[in-house]
Design a protein that fits this description.
Order of helices and strands: HHHHHHHH
Number of helices: 8
Strand content: under 5%
Shape: globular
Radius of gyration: 17 Å
Helix content: over 70%
Length: about 140
Amino acid sequence: METQIKQQNDWGMRSVSYWITLAVALGIIFIGVRFILQPQVGALEYGISFNNQHDAVYGKIKGIRDVFSGIVLLPLLIMHMRKPTAWVFTTAIVVPSADFLIVHSINGTGDLEHLSIHGITALVMIVNSFLLFYANNQSDKG
């Protein structure tokens, strides 16, 4: 148990995966707040605009879920819990992957800007998940 706790505490601010996770968490919190406050703007940046003003409520619903998705990682980061962070972060890859597929199904391959945003986010999260799970603590330090 002591080894596990010591290993857990070795991961933190000197780790690349820590900072990537924090950046993604804060980024999705920002996106969520923007969806809550300005749902039309959030929808345009997502890649699919609303058809009418009443659709904006769905942006607010998406926004609170985005805020939660970012906040859920913060206690794990604060407590330097690498493995739980890895599991939560890895399961969250489904979100930008699904976003990519949704934008593709609506806008097609021609919307490279929004497809790239969702695709690159998923790719960064996949790489970071690898770092969180498999990188030796020493090789993961920045």
